[in-house]
Amino acid sequence: MDPNSVLLSPQSRTFSCLTEPSMEGGRSPAPPELARDSLFSWSQLPSSGLADPDWFWDEHIQAKRARVETIVQGMCLSPSPLGSGSARSRNSPCCPEKAQKRKRKQSLPMQQGPQKPSPARDQGNRKGLGTPYMREQLHLLKQQLRHLQEHVLQAAEPRGPAQGPGDSDKGKGPLRVKQRSGGGSSPWTVDSALHQGSNRDLSRVDRHRMSEAPGFLPSGADLREILREELTRAMSQTVDSVLQKVLLEPPGHLVQAGRSFQGLAPEDRSEPSPSEGGAYKEPHSLAILPRRAQPQTGVPMGHLSLAKPLDSPRYPDSPRMIPKSYQDLPTNCPLAVPSCIPENQILSQLLGHGSNGHWSDSPLQDSASPSHPSSESVLRPWGAIRLRRPSTLSQQQYSGPFTAAHLVKMEQVGLQAVTEALPFSSAHIQEGLNPGHLKKAKLMFFFTRYPSSNLLKVYFPDVQFNRCITSQMIKWFSNFREFYYIQMEKFARQAISEGVTNPKMLVVLRDSELFRALNTHYNKGNDFQVPDCFLEIASLTLQEFFRAVSAGKDSDPSWKKPIYKIISKLDSDIPEIFKSSSYPQELFQVKNPQVDCMLDHVMLPPAISNRPPSQ
DNA sequence: TGACTTCCTG
DNA sequence: CAGGAAGTCA
Question: Where is there biased composition of kind Polar residues (predicted)?
Answer without folding.
Answer: 1-19, 81-92, 357-366
